[in-house]
Amino acid sequence: AAKERGKNKFYVYTQELHNEYSRRLEIENALREAVENEQFEIFYQPIIDVKTGHVASLEALIRWNRPEYGFVSPTEFIPIAEETGQIISIGRWVARSVCRQIKNWQQLGYSLVPISINVSGMDFQLPDFMERFKEIVNEGEIDPKWIEIEITESALMNDIQHAMQTLKDLKEMGVRCAMDDFGTGYSSLSYLRKFPVDKLKIDRSFVKDISNQENQAILRNIIQLARNLRLLVVAEGVETQEELRFLQSEMCDYVQGYLYSQPISAAGIEDRFLK
Ligand code: C2E
Ligand code: MG
Ligand code: MG
Ligand code: MG
């Protein structure tokens, strides 16, 4: 009987691998069409200044509405797009769309806030990233001060020399940078001190269990670290009043999360925050 079970287990295992593989292949093919057929949309999530309660900036988050399937999570398709190289054209689409949105809101006379774009580490590490990014911002005819870039801690630590130079170039250009998902990578603190970033975004996982003493200690320490390095600090994934109160008492600069707003469409942002 044990042997039988073992066999079944093996069967289930290969079946799972197979399913995962065909799902990936399917997504890869569908993504090819998605880029061409405008199946993407950008949602925006406000980032709130804890002291004033005002919207300080917006994070641009891609949404893929796949015909006949509905929304596919970026946590599923972004890693696939990174492996296939499709992330380059997706990243270009996102940056162009954000530039267009900034220009549009400006022309409508809304008082703008900066918009942050998530840049894949795979894209960021390419030698021509800066050149391509500059070109998009130039063509978008917007002041780069309205754009911020979010790049994960691990992507920055991957190639420190390149990251250092690219961050310098971005700063020179007037684009602010935030280190995303902070606390989940393996930052060398000595490099962190030298990186010309403006913000740390504390990963959602540390905010989630705020009653947990260890998470409280981690949050406190990251906020302190940011303060000592003269960086601004954002807490992601704030869902409850209790979480907000704790972050407030620890003097976290900004919060972002469902408590205030989910990511919503550009029209939603206009209605709720810009009008
Ligand atoms: P991220 O950059 O860390 O974005 C934060 C994620 O947390 C978003 O998920 C957001 O919807 C979610 N979130 C915000 N507040 C809350 C909350 O209170 N509770 C919970 N449970 N979640 C919250 P989303 O939009 O699914 O994106 C997931 C990840 O996919 C992003 O993580 C980012 O790494 C990547 N991503 C999204 N859009 C883009 C894009 O345009 N380009 C690239 N390269 N990556 C993107
Ligand atoms: Mg982000
Ligand atoms: Mg994040
Ligand atoms: Mg994340």
Automatic annotation (TrEMBL):
Carries keyword Transmembrane? yes
Tell me yes or no: is Oxidoreductase among this UniProt entry's keywords: no
Q: Which keywords, in A-to-Z order, does the entry hold?
A: Coiled coil, Membrane, Transmembrane, Transmembrane helix
Signal sequence residues: none
**What residues does the EAL domain cover?**
24-275
What is this protein's record name? EAL domain-containing protein
* Organism from which the protein derives: Fodinisporobacter ferrooxydans
